[in-house]
Structure formats: C-alpha cells, structure tokens
Amino acid sequence: MKTIAIEYLNKKRKAAPLAVFRILFGLLMVVSLIRFWHYGWIEKLYLLPRFHFHYYGFEWVTVPGNWTYLLFIICGLSAFLFAIGYKYRLCIITFFLSFTYIELMDKTTYLNHYYFVSLVSFILLWLPAQVHFSVDAWRDKSIRSEYIAQWHIGALQLMMAIVYIYAGLAKLNTDWLVDALPLSIWLREKGHLPLIGQLLDERWLHYLFSWGGAIYDLSIVFFLMWSRTRVMAFIAVLVFHLLTKILFPIGMFPYIMIVGTLLFFSDDFHTKILKLFSRICAVDYKVFCNRICYIGKPRYRRLSLSVLTGFFVIQLLFPLRCYAYSGNLFWTEQGYRFSWRVMLMEKTGYANFKIVDAVTGKRFYVQNEDFLTAFQQKQMSTQADFMIEYAHYLGDHFRAQGHQNLQIFVESYASLNGRKSQVYLDPDIDLLTLANNFKNRDFISPLYEN
To answer: What is d(CA 95, CA 101) in angstroms, rounded to the nearest whole number?
Structure first.
C-alpha cells in the first residue's frame, strides 16, 4: 500500500489541465461576482438587513457596511489575476479569504456551490497552478514548467468526486426515490415553459429525473475516469447541468461543475485548449513547453501533502456528522449544511415570536418584517438555529428598550416536501435558555408522516 502511494505521488503529467482549470475557474468567479453586483444582491442581502444570521463560531464576521462593495471588488480583481496567473500565490490567498468572508457574512445566503468555491480555492492555495501558461511563468523562467506531479490534478478530481458521490448518496431516501419528492412539486411549477412545459406534469418524468439524478451523481465520476466512456459522460454532464440550469434558479453552479469535469480529460485535450487561448492572446505557447517538471521545495511539498491529506479526511467525514443526531435529517437539518445535499427538499414554514414578562405575565407578539427581510424570514421559519439566534437578537433588542424578565417563545409550523403543516419547535420552551451549538436539538418536534 505504501509503495502504491509513493508511486502515485512520484508520477508526473502535463500541467495543462491545472492551467486550464485555473483560467476557467477564475473567469467564472469574475462573472459570478459581477452578476451578484449587477442584480443588486449586495445591497439586498447584506446592506439592507438590520440583522444578519451567523454561522456557529463565526459570529465575529460582520458586514462592513458600504465597504462591502470594496470587498467584492477585491475578490473579483483577485479572481481575474489568479486566472491569468499574475502574482498567483498572493491573489489566490486574497480570493480565498475575501470570498469566504463574503460567504460567512450571513448564513441566510448559504449555497452548496459557495461552499464548493471556498474549498476549491483552498486546494488551489497548495497547488502550483501558476507554473504553466501564466503571467508568472512567462516572466519567471525558474518556475516555468511543462509537467507537474499527478496528485496536483488528482486533488481537484477527488474534490469533484466527493461532491458528486455524496450528492448521490443523499438522494437514496424514500422521498426522493419512492415519492419523487420534491422534484414532482418543482417540475409541476414549470408548466409555463415552452415546448416542455406540458411534459413536466407527467408523473413518469418525475421518477425519471429522480432516479436518473441519483444514478448520475453516483456514477458520473467513474465514467469520466474511463477514457472509453469519457466523451459520452461529458455529454451527460452537459445535458444534466444545462437542464438543471433551465429548470431551476441555481446560479453559476452548473457552469462550475462543467468546468470541473474537464479535469478528467487527457493532457492533450487541455493542451489544445491552451493553444487556442495562446492564439487569442497572441502568446507563443511553445515558450511554456520546456519538458521541465515542477518539483518545488521539499519542505513546501511535504507541507502541501500534509495539509491536503488532513483536508480530505475532514471532507470525507464531515458530511457524515448527521448520523450523530436523531430525527429526520430534512426536518431537523442537523448536519444538513456542508454535506452536499443539493436540492433535496421543499420546506415552508411560519414562525410567530411571543415576548413574555416572566413576572407580570404581560406578552406581545413580534412583527418579523420589522427586523428581517422577506428572504431572511423564509429561511428562519424552517430552521431551528435561525430561530434561536433571532430570539436572542430580539431579547437584546427589547432589553435595550427597557423590558425586563424576558422570555421568548415561538409558535412555529413547517411543511416538508408537501406534507401537512406540523408544529416545528416546542412552543413551551423559552428560546433564550437555548444556545446554538452542536448538541442534539431535542426540542424540535418529531416529523409525523401524513
């Protein structure tokens, strides 16, 4: 086993796939950030809310007011610069820190592909993506290399495999496979689409999409790895992600995954792409073809391997934390985030907060729209950690107004994948006595099948 690992780590291959990924991933990030700004989401999601929900342990991350625009500029500029390979190491660090900070500013905006971008940019911190077809390699002959270690590309391929396989495993549940939920709900809502709208109401199609999606996620990486099935697999990738882009508003995620699957193609395929780029940029590609393999400093190589090994151990184990909790995962959402459960549930809810003076018994109800945006209310009304944090915010707010002996209760109801609405949190528990942590939330009412 040790011999096999050593042989793998010593294998080399052309650096072209890593260079292509660096360019396309960086440019996609630039487009994504411009798109975010263009649609006014910086103001809507970060500047307008008077209160922001935080990730546990990252309460110190705050929205820097109008400086948020500068943060997006820095993030976008660093993405463009690492894409072209200028001051790569500095720029990928800047991008990772700025993008992750943006992601952490408000838990309400959590999306799997934001998390994926942070993870990929972290991996890129430890890879020599600047040694081939980059401004840095053009200017500095000492780093210019045609070859790199195979594991440099393998690390990104492994990240892709983790996302796909865990997403596929998450689909192996009764709602998805037996009842075609929540796809049957979502697809029926797309009946207005031209040409395919009427077809989307067919029950057999809901099952085709559900089972097909699970099989696709669980198998696509293996078909991409095998040269004989790679082209057909990539066609499936294009069809799958472009279809999901048409049917569902999931932003840049389909394009990011399409670019990621290119990593499984041959060195010659990526060399042709770089030659095309070189003609567009009027650069002599032969300059980078020097038959040199990038080795790097031994100490840094060992550090990179150690860090990424630990990183992938965490990535393999962290999505499994949900099994440490009781109850239906989609109902409680304990261990749901950061585990590649992509578009698996349709959940709606209602939460009415009651402020009580424990001594006098006086009470009043909160108008959530006075404190939260409509999007924040939607997220808060179905997730226990949101409700707890919001309750503590309300407690601080009303104490500052002179209220004393506060207790805060919530009357909450939620519906999962079309089920009848049910009580979500125990209405008799004072939310101010609860804290957001990793303990099991046994105050969440059980899900009753109906």
So the answer is: 10
